[in-house]
Amino acid sequence: MKTSEFVTPTAPWPDGRAAAAPQQGAFPEALQSPGNSACVLIVDEHAANLQVLQDVLEESGYNVAVARSVPHALLIAPGWCPDLVLLDQELCAHEGMGQITRLLSMPGLAHVPSILMGPKPDSEQVLAALEAGCVDTIPKPVRAREVLARVAVHVRGRREARQARQALDAFGHASLVLRSVDGARIWHTPLASQLMHFHFEVPEMVTPPSVLRWLRQSIASSQPGAMISARGGRRLELSLHGQTGDDEWLVMMRESSDAVLIDGISQGLRLTLREAEVLYWVVKGKINRDIGAILGMSPQTVKKHLEHVFAKLGVETRTAAAAQALGRVRGLSN
């Protein structure tokens, strides 16, 4: 079991041990593989608490990273990609809820459950932490069995949710849930995050202003339309699927490109890639001269390819061939 201990370099342990600085490159990718144990990030300013929790979790097969401050947690969290965060309640008072909110909403932790540990489960600090994103509380002094039980439940839920998002992506259903009042991204599938970054050049968890305007217009409309974004030969279509909660809206995303559609026409109609390219541009309404210019061939060569296409499809006109190709393209888009 790989174990690393992180403490703030300027704050030594009470027993006099020197503080260990985080080691660059010491974050194995295998921590996130399904075959290995989950990773828990503990954020607690008390060395004794850290040691007890670290021992309990490691003995139960968890990988553990520890930090004695929120800024240090912000530094190491991206490298560890934790499955769960255990957060000391006293940090809410000492470092402020702004820092706690920043930690829980940072890229990579937005979908990670966080549990608050503290002696006063009904305090205003607890309520503020829950509003900031914590999903559970554990009273102090902690009991080992309770900690393990709660951690196991939330880690299992986290992995099931991640698997569900990955399954949506696998079937081409990139999706995200947005809040219209402020554009907050409640959750998203990995593919949806990649598409948003490519098409709108925004960081993770940030909603582009154009998407937020479209969302608000779609909510207000009786017949919401899709939003289209095109970049680098890739076309992204966003559609409003429906409401999932109080001001939470599910948006479905589907991307297409010339290359994907041409390949689909080729495979679906049993044409060569060159024949499929020519037919694709016929569907787009291009004449032979334009198609030749696009594909770098003479109009006569385009005509010869079309003759082969007509023979393979059993049609006699451009319109009939285009109709078959259009049917295939629509099938790829649904």
TrEMBL record:
Pfam families cross-referenced by the UniProt entry: GerE, Response_reg
Residues carrying 4-aspartylphosphate: D88
Region Disordered: start-end pairs: 1-25
GO molecular function annotation: DNA binding
Taxonomy, superkingdom: Bacteria
All residue ranges annotated as the HTH luxR-type domain in the record: 264-329
Domain Response regulatory: 39-155
GO biological process: phosphorelay signal transduction system; regulation of DNA-templated transcription
InterPro entries: CheY-like_superfamily (IPR011006), Sig_transdc_resp-reg_C-effctor (IPR016032), Sig_transdc_resp-reg_receiver (IPR001789), Tscrpt_reg_LuxR_C (IPR000792), WalR-like (IPR039420), WH-like_DNA-bd_sf (IPR036388)
Keywords associated with the record: DNA-binding, Phosphoprotein
Identification of the protein by name: LuxR family two component transcriptional regulator
Organism: Roseateles toxinivorans
